[in-house]
């Protein structure tokens, strides 16, 4: 497929995703027509709308792409970025299709884009843009709890999701499930506990699963386990911040942090939370007192000594140009598309391993699925059974104490008796999903000698699952 030319900028992200797909498709047995249907973007909606800015008007470019309707609704975040373009939104929508299949979330893939730098707009202007974007989607039937369900992505968060939910509910009076039209909402607006940190938590679980397999670590010259592993994270936004937080909780040491304005490093470890606060206060990670080295570009930060690199900012960060200088043995792709296909081949040839985006950052869509289920069922997880569970556990503890004559301490009693909260159930579902999916991908990788990377294995699994959906629909034999 030819690369798409946008203005004078050549874009290749969708082409890269298709390259990965075509490579993996060789290891499946599906009809060429079916593979073509799976790979193509089903609907691409490009639109423009005016907003009032200052004393004048500005016309905003925006997109919503529904890559695959093999499952409904379609699902995917909305990116607010001045760099966003049609090729990028198509690529991200395609990745969503494969991602949902990998973690068994019953959605098709979609993605949205609004071409603005949010920093250049007031809150009121951002609200106007978001509400108008939503109205445009409603007009074309590109949003709805059973149609297409957006979520946060780069540059957007809970606030934007609230505006979308409110606009959709207002325009659809009486629709009981209206709040299921978008996920990543604040808890007060029927969001779900644990969604904010879900993607980063998922990244950390993915890394933990990978490094816990001693046999695989031996092949790349690392010891098993996360304890003491040195990690560099690029991007201190939603995904990067929570990846750093949970990797630290699991025993790893954050030695490097890279942001837009530069990078910092300390081989003995950085307190990522203190760096985050420093950036909030000063507008930059540079100048943080606990760093021993500073770099004026994010790219230099990626090349410092570490075991694990977590790119969690944007695509095309690891390319043929810089891959040879990376010192990490594992790349865990928090961002979508951070590694180009050529760079991936070199990284593996140099004895590394890549935990691919479509699996590594799937924690977000997994918990979005839970939020959507909560919105459709109109009840929070745990509400019906928590007290029942606690009473049953209490009866059991009383009985065991009575029979054995051994009295438990108050802490032991409360630990055993306690029923699960919504957050605990969400985290349990997320952890289970990430662990099962990793081993499913790894088994495919390990048991098929021709399959060269975890990404190829992930694609093979996704293609097979999507093919079954089409076959179940009776579209392909
Ligand atoms: P975000 O806007 O919260 O954070 C992104 C961060 O990256 C910002 O702090 C930004 O300053 C920084 N950044 C931008 N360019 C950079 C550069 N060149 N070098 C270093 N840092 C840079 O966005 P996010 O939601 O964390 O998304 C990050 C990536 O993760 C995107 O690729 C997104 O598609 C992907 N992702 C996000 C989610 C989610 O739930 N938010 C889920 C899956 C995948």
UniProtKB/TrEMBL annotation:
Binding sites annotated in the UniProt record for substrate: 75, 99, 368
Domain of life: Bacteria
Annotated catalytic residues: 111
Any one Gene Ontology molecular-function term assigned to this protein's record: nucleotide binding
GO terms of biological process kind: L-glutamate catabolic process
Region forming the signal peptide: none
Keyword vocabulary terms for this entry: NAD, Nucleotide-binding, Oxidoreductase
Site (Important for catalysis): 153
Similarity-based family: Belongs to the Glu/Leu/Phe/Val dehydrogenases family.
Name of the protein in question: Glutamate dehydrogenase
Protein source organism: Mucilaginibacter galii
Origin organism lineage: Bacteria, Pseudomonadati, Bacteroidota, Sphingobacteriia, Sphingobacteriales
